[in-house]
Amino acid sequence: MKKIYLSLLILLSLTFPSMAQLSLDFESGNRAIEQGNCWVFGSVSYSNLEFRINGNWSGRTNQLTNPSINSSWIKTPWILPGTGNITLKARLENSSGISRGIVLSYIPYDADAPTSHKEGETTTFASYNFPTPLNISIQNLTFALPAEIANSPESFKILISFIGQGGNSRAFVDDIIIPGTYNSDPSNSCLPLMNIDDSDGDGVADGEDAYPSDSNRAYNSVYPSANGFGTLAFEDLWPNKGDYDFNDVVVDYRINTVTNASNNVVELIAQFKLKASGAGYKNGFALQLDGIDTDKVLSVSGNNISSTSTLVFNEGGLESGQEFANVIVFDNFFNVMPKEGSGTGVNTNPNAPFVEYQTLTLTVTFINNGTPAPGGTVNINQLTPDKFNFYIFLAEQRGREIHLPDRVPTNLADISLFGTGDDNSNPAQNKYYKTVNKLPWAINVLQGFEHPVEKNAIDKAYLKFNTWAVSSGNSFPDWFSDEPGYRDAQKIY
Amino acid sequence: MKNNLFLLLAGILLFTSCAKDLDLPDTETDVPVSIDELNVSDSFSWNTAATVKLKIQGLPTIIPIRSSLKISLPDGSVVFNRMHLMSENLTINLTIPSNFNTLILSFGDLKEELKVNNGEANFSFIPLDTEE
Question: ipTM more than 0.95?
Fold first, then answer.
């Protein structure tokens, strides 16, 4: 017999697919969650008092002494009405009062309505009066959805109002079920859901899509800012201390992480503006993507590698011999910005000829025409700017890398140099590229800055630099600014 | 006489103490004059960045609601942008210029200014409970 019932149930479920419905059982215990889903409550709270109807929570009205439908009420989100009955459970808290009742109304969507809710005229279609004398028994109520809105393609709200006269009894309400399809958009002021304009069909609305005609790209996330460049400034005598003019390699940078509608990184478009090098060494400059395996990258383009370079690259253009993706931006600064005239370096001596800044725009490709690298995709949460590990290295001595303080060296770094000269790195403690006094060989100014003139230590050019440093960045966080008393302009290039 | 002397001494001490309080120390007087003499905190990172852990609390929604989640700096620069499911909890590690202490979060027509405090910012898609 049970088998017959089961077969009948399966047959019925196949014949009559489940009807869409909107329900409210209050069991979240948090009215704000329903408000977030576009339910609206007028003097109806959530209650777990003993008079609750079902489960742990029910809705509870205020004292029902007002015959107005706008006194105590619950309003649904926008729905596309179905057919059938609205059902709910209700009870009174006590028997005090002359009368108590429930009134049901519908509200159509009106695009021309002057209010932001775009609600049209309210039409009452059903009501119920609690039996008198009033009592606290639970009422299982059923109201037919009116024929004029059943199966309408337009959006409606249902207003459930609680009314009464005299006494002080409140009402409890629970298990509200309304035939219809939820059609509100909590991300758009709870207006009805709308079809979006999406020219490339990637699921991102044209208005939010940085590439509305390219289904393989959707978003730009720019570091440090779309409105400017950060500056990386290096000393290159590591492991020995230098003169702290931080102009041995000076590069401005801005990196755009391009992602698709699935939040996977399609490419990095990195702009590096070479500004100065007051170095005797030929320095290279690179970027390791910490934690990103080399097989996640398809290709690298736009870098500057000299024909005599001894660096080794894989097929895609990443440096070989590395666990994580290493992008060599250039292997010799002076190949990109040749020295002009005599003297050391480029753009560190005001008396020497100025060399135009050179910008290299690199593209690191992770997905090409929708096809990811063999190692799979990289989500944007895996490649946030804290994974950008910038460093310089000597062209003639690849293992002599110089990173920002406490950034890990690459696999090709010569670890025998740690702890020599003035370096006090301790790889076991993840301490790198700092002296005993915690001085660095590189700084990163996200707001950008102008580097010091040759042989002028940065604290002599920027007069608040030391205070900033000893305060751990709390005092004069704008030390690089052109504020009165902040600079010795003669010492800034 | 002894009492008067005691009161006089107490008064001198009191005013001496007050005078010292009013003479606030110059925060720069203790800073070495040369970078070579600096001794800074081991945790100091020598950059002008602020790292921000942005925690976003999702809203359990009736149907999946997806839209573009955009985190911007007050100057309008978009530092993080992705497709986001409104019901999803999300933590984002951001690195922003240290001169900004607010972020702008956008999702659909929601727009919220978030204060950064002690390297953290928080946002919830669950609204504040409001009475109509």
Answer: no
